[in-house]
Amino acid sequence: MKRNTFMITAVCTMLLGTSTVFANNDHPNDPTIEKEEKLTFPSKKPHPVFTWNSTVIPVSSVLHPSSARGAGMVEAPLQQIDQIMNQAISQKLMPGAVTFVARAGKIVKHDAYGYSAQYTDDKFIEMENPIPMENDTIFDLASISKIFTATAVMVLFEKGLFNLDDPVAKHIPEFATNGKNNVTIRQLLTHTSGFTAWIPLYSKGNSREDRLKLVLNQPLKNAPGTTYEYSDLNMITLGMLIEHLSGQRQDEFVREHITEPLGMMDTMYNPPASLKHRIAATEYQATPNRGLVWGEVHDENAWSLDGVAGHAGVFSTANDLAKLAHIFINEGKYGGKRILKPETVQLLLQNQNTAFPGNDHGLGWELGQGWYMDALSEGTFSFGHTGYTGTSIVVSPNNKTVAILLTNRVHPSRNMGSMNQTRRLFARNVADSIPVSIPGKSDAWFAGYGDKLNRVMETDLQLSKDAKLTFSTWHMIENVWDSGTVEIFRDGSWHQLALFTGTSNGWEKKELAIPSDATKLRFVYGTDSSTNSRGWYIQNPKLDSGDDLSFSKNEWVLRDY
């Protein structure tokens, strides 16, 4: 447990080199749908083989505790996650959190912070005995439930019960009403069906059956396949498809085919009252008049659907959720249990939305979303999902890494503030704990992390003739939005010699011509206001004289990882 003291904000800023501004982008009446929006670390030498994107790291069949070094990771960035969580709690962004990090099945971090239940109402009146957060606290996962729905759909797909490009109406004839006859199952899974984002089902109908019929009768906002719009209605419909094809209610099917085989004993819809003390409290709701929502699903529409729906309703722990994530880096298996075939896993994680850049999506999973994946995002390789209650999961398949952050950020109000910056900082530190392999025995200069950076490494030049600058570079820089440049000062102004963005092909050697009248040389790393990638490294910068450059101004740091 890490709930005793809060670290001073300045310390966190100094160590992380990151912005500590937490933007408030949430609105009180929004539907419960997620929205976008210089010191070296004291560390032991990292594992020499299991570095960033290592192809040889073995994946354990099950999750088990490990040291950071045993997983090929660096301890210090993982430890500094504690400061990030405590800072967010001190700023009242959430009462508490649980963090979970595993690489190749090796659990390197699993910690709890703050409180799982702290307030009696939305006036922030404290409980007489607030309940401390524990590692095994059960959370309302909100929209992460969509991953359970997508996985269940693909279990049925493997049984040959449908094709992805089948019209939904082929299997649910009632769905064809109001122009939906051509909407496909694939379009539901990728949020390209044409549905609007959300309707207030909880204020309509008198039963689960009534409200599901309302979804079936709902007209489209856009023509199928023409627009990406993240919509709960897609997943509610998929929940109905599961029930139609299997003959079981969705919660029963998920239990039989996913959670029980994986040993997810703390994962369920509609948890019993006996577990309330282990469940993180959520919002105090006046409309609808539910009071403090605690032990029941927070999402109003899922609540009105008897707690069982395709878009929300699953409760789980960090450890349980990691088991589900693990099958997607272990070819569909956990331990001796196979949930999906390897080819189905690949299909789930393929980008289906190439026509909608920036809204990349697999079948259920979101791909490459830097607004919460940050430095763990590698193009469309990394996958994950968020939940409105303050939950998120990011998986880096290239690094076999699972990063889970579960919070109760809507307790006691959804107006606590945006979790996106906290999510990014968490993912950023997990990424930083995976070392870049630095060649040879010398260290490399690292530009660091942060929002709105302009980090300079500068040297004076005294040249009698034209020269050549040589250096090696490794970079994974947010493409276009962030950049690294090499610049010289001549004729009273700075001139760019080279620009770096995107991802290098490993370590690359560079050679640049330096004119004799250049009086200064600098490396500059600039970032925008949000997402960082893994960063920019420079090794052995020198002129053709053979001398290493000595930097008169240097905001970068030397690193051995």
From TrEMBL:
<dbReference type="Pfam" id="PF00144">
    <property type="entry name" value="Beta-lactamase"/>
</dbReference>
<keyword id="KW-0732">Signal</keyword>
<dbReference type="GO" id="GO:0016787">
    <property type="term" value="F:hydrolase activity"/>
</dbReference>
<dbReference type="InterPro" id="IPR050789">
    <property type="entry name" value="Diverse_Enzym_Activities"/>
</dbReference>
<dbReference type="InterPro" id="IPR012338">
    <property type="entry name" value="Beta-lactam/transpept-like"/>
</dbReference>
<dbReference type="InterPro" id="IPR001466">
    <property type="entry name" value="Beta-lactam-related"/>
</dbReference>
<protein>
    <submittedName>
        <fullName>Serine hydrolase</fullName>
    </submittedName>
</protein>
<feature type="domain" description="Beta-lactamase-related">
    <location>
        <begin position="82"/>
        <end position="425"/>
    </location>
</feature>
<keyword id="KW-0378">Hydrolase</keyword>
<feature type="signal peptide">
    <location>
        <begin position="1"/>
        <end position="23"/>
    </location>
</feature>
